[in-house]
Amino acid sequence: MQTHFTPAVHRIDPDDDVVVALRQLEPGETVALSDPGGSGGASLYIRELIPRGHKLAIRKISAGTPVRKYGWPIGEAKRDIPAGSLVHTDNLTTLLTGLNRYEYQPASPVRATALGLEQPLQFMGYRRAGGRVGTRNEIWVVSTVGCVTRTAERIARLGAERYAGHVDGIHALTHPFGCSQLGDDLAHTRRILASLIMHPNAGGVLVVGLGCESNQLTKLLAEAGDYDRSRLRSFNAQASDDEIEDGLTALAELVQIAACDEREPCPLSSLSIGLKCGGSDGFSGITANPLVGRIADQVSAAGGTPILTEIPEVFGAEQLLMRRAVDAHVFADVVSLVNSFKQYFLDHGQPIYENPSPGNIAGGITTLEEKSLGAVQKGGRAPVSQVLLYGHRASRPGLALLESPGNDAVSSTALVAAGATILLFTTGRGTPLGFPVPTLKIASTSALAQKKPRWIDFDAGQVLEGASMDEAARELMQLVIETASGKPARNELNDERDIAIWKTGVVL
Fold first, then answer.
1. 275 vs 39: which has the higher pLDDT
2. Domain positions in the chain
3. Coil, helix or strand for 124?
4. Per-residue pLDDT at 439 exceeds 90
5. Average pLDDT over residues 353-357
6. Which of 21, 67, 252, 428 is disulfide-compatible with 444, CB 3.0–4.6 A?
7. Looking at the domain covering 1-93, what would its CATH class be?
């Protein structure tokens, strides 16, 4: 009878100096570094308590030498680290400093791993003007300024009650900005809102302004550019005798138009997915993130558009993305984006490595390099085809790199504004957050998926429990297609739909 071997540790890359504990390891026990039936059969004596998800050294690491995980340095040993010891904040420090110079060294293209699903993959979507395709047919009520937040929310709530069942939903997208903003700060707010107005998941948009704000309604609509005017209504509340009734009248007109829209078969090339992680732990880079990377590769290979962001969580892993730039021009754009973001930190007197978060550290992540190397795996292995500035929309197929901070709400909103019609949001700690598009929460462990079933849409921890990465990827790809075709995500069922705008300037 063959005995099933349950590993206690996981080694990501053959060159790594550390492994990840798959369960809590006790001082004095000995664990195998590989399946005894496989090659090697080496074992490791555990010197101290190693929490689940944390790292431990598999060989002596001398002080001042790099420590490798994912095959890349994640920092430098602050002192000698004996084999079998915990590697964490007290003995590992970042190698990141300031700006870097980079050389274009393109890597050979890598073909996406076939998932074995029925080809060609397609979903049931809503075709929009200009060739865009939405996964929802909703009416969005967008406020120009924080002063009309409650007005927009009341219009959307009353409209949702009055026109329930006519469209996929009526929702307010509100924020506290738009007044007393200057320069680039105002431009950021205007550009994000303009891109949301153009989003294909909105079968109609009502823009509610106040009248005296910095973010003037006419300039916002001009920023939106070429939109279908039959599907957009707008007014300033100061010029209205009854802004609630005017809003409901506008919604009635938009609902009448959007209610005629029907889903139809659309190829995977019509899909744009946002790639996001929040509350990462020591397993995120082993399960959820590489799993999402498989989906990103499938969408990119089909001619669709996966979008990766959270630029501060690229620091330390940026060269992996730079090597995948489709040409020297895109490489230069990636370099400019990364160094500009680093300079943003330095200009504000902050170190570029002030990350991971307390939750990340509790989950086993020690340095920004380690966090970044795990995070970029969401982008799979597809070539980087374009670099987008904050608030800009993706204009071509292939993996896009988008300017945005790592903050969950800000970066997820930026992904939606860039054109993502579904978000794949990996998490090791859990969060109820949701955004204007379906936000599929992908847990890094089965324990989290079981603890928070109302938050989590997919359990990536199954790859630690015996399922293959290919099996899990096929299951996740099927969920993506079903969600794009109308199956509600947990955030939609829980009515979690927020936006957040990157505040970068002064207030008058």
1. 275
2. 1-93, 138-260, 268-493
3. strand
4. yes
5. 79
6. 428
7. mainly beta
